[in-house]
Design goal:
The chain is built from 16 helices and no strands. It is an all-alpha fold. 80% of the residues lie in helices and 0% in strands. It folds into 2 domains: 197 residues, Up-down Bundle (Growth Hormone, Chain: A), CATH 1.20.1250.20; 227 residues, Up-down Bundle (Growth Hormone, Chain: A). The N terminus is likely disordered.
């Protein structure tokens, strides 16, 4: 490719990934609430509902974990463009099915849509391979950063658009419109890719999107460096803890919005009054809008933390120091979340969300950077792929255990996450002290 098509292709791939991820951000805050409401039609105990909604939340990540290598191999064989188009087509269909499942209160439909959307979303590895095809080694890191930016923007703006789409129907609670809007956005991304996205793979490029589900050689290479093995475990623990928080947040806020009084939560009471002044009197409608607003706030904090705080601290602190600082912040966030839950305080919950998200924004990139720096460059791809697999498994298991614990008692997921973060902090300190960058190890 010439330089001009490369730049144009990167813009198009960014826009297609971003628009598709908006759909993910639109649906995510609503999923556990819809699932819990739809499960009421069955004669299930609270514990069974917890397991069921946990599996629903995990199904997307599980399908991504299984199908990332499949789509990667197919894109190596048939090209990047057709695989990206297939993924966007599937996203269009399955987000539309989410709207239908909401319309007919179908729990089975929710499961089918999340499984299908997870399979479609696994084409993200193909988008990364597309960027690798169209960038030089010197500019590849900046190109890959586009995917991270698309994730952050999708997670921030998605809930805002989801909240807006709720107003398209006569009632907000269990509205099908977020699914339909997400489907329309994926359809637009599909049209954009179909018209503007050329094939990137060249016979001489030598770039491959293939990724093994479980790479034994990468595991042996990682364990050969003790600090890298500890860092992989630490990264998985941090993601598992965050998945507990992320998966239970919607039902926690929904519970507060449905049951708190103005005296208990003045900020929530003020927000509820503003929503009711807009014409939405049903408490179920108010609760859903509050959930979407809270997730939009969460995404904004995450974007600011990643875009400003992390960059500025990176010039002043080492990765190890940033990881410790982030771990302490995350631990404080989990403790505050537990206290907010026990007190039923929406104001404290909002503050705890910010503290927790800032901590995760510091921990995750710092650990990934340490893993990369301490790995043999010749084995770095496999080890980083192994790290991605480990964190994917953590995202699968986190919601299952988090929502199961939530049904037992709402503060339990945060106690569990705090305990795991204490262990993660200890592992960070040990791994930082016991290892060095590759080439400087004794």
């Amino acid at each position: 490719m010439s330089e001009a098509p490369r730049k144009g292709s990167l813009l198009v791939i960014f826009l297609t990934v971003f628009i598709d991820l908006l759909g993910f951000g639109i649906v995510l805050p609503l999923l556990p609430i819809y699932g819990e409401d739809f499960a009421l039609q069955y004669d299930l105990t609270d514990q069974q509902v917890g397991w069921l909604i946990g599996l629903l939340m995990s199904s997307f990540s599980a399908m991504q974990f299984l199908f990332l290598p499949v789509w990667g191999r197919l894109s190596d064989r048939f090209g990047r463009r057709p695989i990206i188009l297939i993924g966007l087509t599937a996203s269009t269909v399955f987000y539309g099915m989410f709207g239908l499942a909401a319309l007919y209160h179908s729990l089975l439909g929710l499961f089918l849509t999340r499984i299908g959307a997870g399979i479609a979303g696994a084409t993200i590895s193909t988008a990364q391979a597309y960027i690798a095809d169209t960038t030089t080694k010197e500019k590849r890191a900046k190109g890959m950063a586009l995917i991270g930016a698309a994730f952050a923007l999708g997670f921030t703006l998605g809930p805002m658009i989801g909240a807006g789409s709720l107003f398209l129907g006569r009632q907000v609670a269990e509205s099908p419109w977020p699914g339909f809007v997400a489907s329309l956005m994926s359809a637009f991304a599909l049209l954009l890719a179909f018209v503007k996205l050329p094939e990137s793979m060249q016979p001489e490029s030598g770039v491959t999107a293939q990724r093994k589900l479980f790479d034994r050689s990468a595991l042996r290479a990682a364990l050969a460096i003790p600090s890298v093995g500890l860092l992989l475990l630490t990264s998985a623990l941090a993601v598992f803890s965050f998945a507990n928080f992320e998966s239970t947040l919607s039902v926690q806020i929904d519970h507060l919005a449905m049951n708190s009084t103005k005296a208990d939560a003045p900020l929530l009471g003020w927000l509820s009054d503003k929503i009711k002044d807009s014409g939405y009197e049903r408490q179920e409608d108010v609760a859903i809008i509050v959930v979407c607003a809270a997730f939009a706030y969460l995404g904004l904090i995450l974007t600011l933390a990643q875009g400003f705080l992390v960059r500025r601290l990176a010039d002043r602190l080492s990765e190890g120091a940033m990881a410790v600082l982030g771990g302490l912040s995350a631990l404080a966030g989990f403790a505050l979340l537990a206290v907010a839950t026990l007190r039923g305080s929406f104001e404290l919950l909002v503050g705890a969300m910010a503290v927790e998200v800032v901590g995760f924004a510091l921990v995750n990139p710092s650990l990934q950077s340490l893993i990369s720096r301490r790995s043999d460059p010749n084995q770095q791809g496999g080890i980083l792929g192994l790290a991605q697999s480990a964190t994917s498994l953590a995202r699968i298991l986190g919601p299952v255990f988090g929502l199961r614990l939530f049904k037992q008692s709402p503060e339990y997921p945060y106690y569990g996450a705090a305990g795991l973060m204490v262990l993660a902090l200890l592992l960070i300190v040990v791994s930082v002290r016991s290892g060095r960058d590759f080439g400087h190890q004794e």
